[in-house]
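Usage

Read records sequentially. Each one opens with the input sequence:
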Amino acid sequence: MAPPPHPHPAAGQGSLEYVGLLALVSTALAVAAGPAAGLAGVPGRVAGILRTGVCIAGGDVCRAADAAAAGLAPCTLSDRLRGGGLAVTVLSVRVGADHRFLVAHRSDGSVAVTKVARDELAASGGLGFEAGPWRAGVEAQAGLRVASGVGWEFADAAAARRFLAEARDGLSPAVARWPVAWRSGEAGLATSGWAGLGVQSKGADGSAVETTAVGIELAAESAIGARIARGSTTFYLRAETTGPRTTGVLAGLLDAGPGGPVVAEYTRDGGGPRELAFRVSGRGARRGEAVETVARLDLRVEANRAVAERLLRHRAPWPPAVAADLRAAMLQAVRAGTVERSVYAVADGSRSFGLAGRLGAEVGLEADYAKVDRRLVSASAWTAGSQERAREDCLPGGSHAGA
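and closes with the structure output:
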């Protein structure tokens, strides 16, 4: 999808809302234009001044001070995810756990470290039949996932490195020495299903080989949780889907890919409602890219709070009317809040291993190791209904000074 056109001052408010809504839900916008060209050979200091001048003339976010004035948080320049998990399946019941660390470096020099632990209990079942070499069946799995998280904030990379060095020797002593910025907990439901038709043949060594002739897969996960920080509490709802996806002779005919995760957040502090936020993550326009879009609405403003209250009055299970109130809150975030978009280059070196068999009952063992590195390649923002503004303050060569 092409990036939304820059609205003209005379454009109607309805057009502006539509453009902003597309900016929020789209995860495949083109990479924002790079810094001004033609500065090669100019001394670095002068080149920096010229770049900042061109950036300001273009109406973009050029310096840390500009970002703060627009209510924009520092960008995450890069992050790395490390961790692993283990799961055991016996009698179609799956029990598993994983632990992961996420280290994120921000454009203001600060570093955020997050540790997440997740436990899972799931059950699976299915129906099927055989007719000669042909097999057809339906399989499904549903499980409960419980996760807890803890986060730390550090002023610079040196402090984060000292913490991580201590955490390797034992997390409890490190937690006692380094204060926790926030804690979170969530519970969710994960489901997956497969239906298809396969054919069984014999390999060269005489072993049975089963090939899927045609199949369709679908998976979904949703969770509700809370994150408690110093002076504020955030309640969130997260949803993610994968598929439907076709396999076999119809492979690629229907491939929705991953949808999300999509996260809605509501934050309160000592003064009452503070912020309503919507986050969307997805694949970028290029291979190996990921796009994150977040819209924030300041609920300390009376007009914003009135729109949010109509959405927050609904309780689970949500009625169909919640869709209209959700759209109204998203449009208000575009008109009066901030919408930020970040494009990352992703290097995924994760690995997994699985072993399964039948010894009177189905048994299985799965292990995985997560290794994901991301690097910011483009950032932009819409502030209070403005046109798209490049976040030059977040990119290499941009001005990070507060002046």
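Summary fields computed downstream for this record:
- The chain has one domain: 13-394.
- The two ends are 36 Å apart (CA to CA).
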